Amino acid sequence: MSVRLSSHRSFWLGAVLTSLLIACALLSFAWTPGSAYEMNMDAALQPPGSRHWLGTDAFGRDVASQILVGARASIAVGLIAVGIGLAAGLALGLLASARRGWTEEIIMRLADFTFAFPALLSAIMLTAVFGAGMVNAIIAIGIFNIPTFARITRASANAIWARDYVTAARACGKSRTAITLQHVLPNIASVLIVQATIQFALAILAEAALSYLGLGTQPPQPSWGRMLSEAQTLMFQAPLLAIWPGLAIALSVLGLNLLGDGLRDLLDPRLARTR
Amino acid sequence: MPLLEVSDLTIQLPTRRGLVQAVRHVGFALERGATLGLIGESGCGKSLTALALMGLLPEQAWVSGSIRLDGQELLGLSERRLCALRGNRMAMVFQEPMTALNPLHGIGRQVAEPLRLHLGLGRRAAQARAVELLERVGIAQAAQRFGEYPHQFSGGQRQRITIAMALACGPDLLIADEPTTALDVTVQQQILALLQELVAEHSMALVLISHDLGVIAQNAEQLLVMYGGSVVESGMTEAVFRQRAHPYTRGLFAARPQMLPAAARPPGHLPTIAGTVPELADLPAGCPFAGRCAFTAQACFAQAPAPRLLQVPAGPAPASLAFWRQPHVVRCLRDEAIHAGAPVTTP
Amino acid sequence: MSATQNLATGAALLKVTALQRTYQLPRASLWRPAAQLHALRGVSFALQAGRSLGVVGESGSGKSTLARLVMALDTPTAGSVELLGQDLHRLGSQQLRAARRHFQMVFQDPYASLDPRMRVERIVAEPLAHLGPPDAPAGREAVRALVQATLEQVGLRARDLDKYPHEFSGGQRQRIAIARALVTRPRLIVADEPVSALDVSVQAQVLNLMQDLQRELGLSYLFISHDLAVVQHLCDEVIVLHQGEIVERGAPHKLFHAPGHPYTQALVRAVPRLPGHIF
Fold this sequence. Notes:
The complex is a heterotrimer. Chain A has a single domain (2-29, 75-274), classed as MetI-like (MetI-like fold), CATH 1.10.3720.10. Helices cover 76% and strands 0% of the residues of chain A. Chain A has helices spanning 2-30, 63-99, 101-116, 119-130, 134-161, 164-171, 176-212, 224-232, 240-272. In chain A, helix 1 (2-30) crosses helix 9 (240-272), helix 2 (63-99) packs antiparallel against helix 7 and helix 2 (63-99) runs parallel beside helix 9 (240-272). The relative contact order of chain A is 0.16. The model of chain A is unreliable at 271-275 (pLDDT under 50). Chain B is of the alpha/beta class. Chain B has a single domain, classed as Rossmann fold, CATH 3.40.50.300. Chain B has helices at residues 46-54, 79-85, 97-100, 107-118, 123-136, 155-167, 185-202, 213-219, 237-243, 247-254, 298-302, 335-339, and strands at residues 4-15, 18-30, 35-39, 62-69, 72-73, 90-93, 173-177, 205-210, 222-227, 230-236, 308-309, 329-330. An eight-stranded mixed sheet of chain B has the order 6-7-8-3-9-10-12-11, sandwiched between helices. A four-stranded antiparallel sheet of chain B has the order 2-1-4-5. In chain B, strand 9 and strand 10 form a beta hairpin. Chain B is globular. The termini of chain B are far apart. By secondary structure, chain C is α/β, with parallel strands linked by helices. Chain C has a six-stranded mixed sheet with strand order 6-7-8-3-9-10, sandwiched between helices. Chain C has a four-stranded antiparallel sheet with strand order 2-1-4-5, covered by helices on one side. At the A-C interface, helix 6 and helix 7 of A face helix 2 of C.
């Protein structure tokens, strides 16, 4: 009983925080409290007040609006980068598992090779070489998501291939492709969903890191990472400027991790209960 | 005083449908050197009873009744005191030898562990004793193989190793939960013979759980037949097998493919027990077998049958006095009527 | 390719000749050649239509390997498996796929042999997807009707079509697995320990069902088991496998009553017996 309650708790908390993140991003398309782009040097470095709920930054831009619009960048990078990683990793993992032999060896060694490079540093290197910007950041982060999904797909898929119901399908004459799509994929979906939420959180962190270094989302598009970097020099004058984006990043990542944990608990015992 | 005395043991488990009784009013007594068999099918509560003896039930379980080991009450003991008893005075051997051993530790270390934990032996002393134990259970070249890992042994050998672990501290009570179900039949024979020898050597009490009538027949002198959490029939194995007073016991015997001494081809269908075991929450309030029993009467649903002592049938006196120790008890409202030839109520 | 073969009287449904399967083990050392595991060392037998052949043996005897080779899920190192006169391992992939309708398999673990994510209807209908016309039923309705009829044959009901495997007990799942094996109306069913994971009373129900189906549909069984009593009950003939070879064969009740080979004797002796029975 207590296990289910706590997993429900993490799931709901995570769901609430993640929904908040998405809501902020969607809301920013329709309305923001102030303007995230308009500079107003008279109103620079204002503390939180009735006009600017979270204050203003060094250029007089409304911080609250920047947080809302910055959510867009985080989500965009998260979604697309994880999407790339999932699509390519899933395909490679399924192929490796279905064909075994040399195909599996080559794919897994390529994944190992990519894993050998520290993901964030390599993303920095790629964006530094190919130019800063959100698109390159997405591609860089996406590439380093591929081996994670490939490995996890292959491991889970191998376990499914060993099951009797797959042998039964082979005994019916089903092709490997059909078995992969009809039997393997639905049975590993829950593992992938959980991994995707975790990778989403990591992608948000990576985007923040790249923007902090000036390599991710470029001005004037607001980004939480860059807000942190800009607030750094003003730490003693306006400490709150660093807190808001930091809090936004922390809550988003926490929310996604809790969502992933909760999903893992909710999805797996149901499968285990088939006994 | 019997080594183990269980009375009115009732275990309730929380399920999606509320609290259900998984074990109902189980009681038995076991002397040193005796073997008690628990027989029944999936869901009858035999494994739960064994876990209750060891204090290994899940936290959410509600247990009531009494379990006395040498006069000491086990239910309600703190975890610390139970830990001191487990592996030391009572030990358990499980069904799956593949998963009962830690794959990352050498077998010698695993056998030595209870020695170091409970008897406080130093590393060398524990190692020497562990080697002795391994040799006793039939692991050849135990000293050289001390550091090897479980995956380097066969299923039968792994089960021998778990038996060595269980015996390390010389327990008074050994519980074996389907110890040979996962093994080949020739290996099963060897393991059961080993258990018999060890029980005799150390004067241990053995609780042997199995679904196999043959295993129980050859290895247990007393027996409890369980169904739906209750003990439906109990007594000396010989008596129970001969009389089969309870309809479930009879059904269990009849459903088993057997070969009689005559070399003729056996008849076609096996007689079966109608229906399937209902979920715990759906068991009838009275006799758990009501509804599936071919002799069910209306009263069977409402009233839980009280234990009834069966008369010992007249005949030549049995060889051992032990026969007199365990009465033959059956829980059935209609067993006399059935015995007298009452017709089936549900064909 | 002929879909139906008329068996001449006396011709075997399944004929296995000198079947061998050797596996290469991973190398223990770089300098020595890899060791070999001889799972099957030349096994031959024949199974007539409508009869059951039991295969008895312990772990390492090669009975699972034999099942896989007969089901053409693995290729032999030597020897042949002939079903209805066709050598299964020499058929092209299309022909083999078409031939699979004549032989199906039932597995040991009722909890692992059904895809937990599929409903019963889809599970039982799976073998039908690979039958080409004119044998395949056309359209969803026809398929559903056939699946329902097969489920009723194994003692389940129409409303079980839309349920998931986890809603059934072990015995019922095994019935679903048997229905899946029956749906293409095969001639041969290879049953790999089909009742070993079931309780005694449930085992009896499934064995009765298998006997009835054999009588009604003229099925042949290749029944693999470690349980001598079950084999003796169901099978007309039995072969005893030991370390990849057949050490003895014959009618079960005669063989187990008076075993000739020492291994068979050891097997029979090891079965725990009730007083007054052989086992």
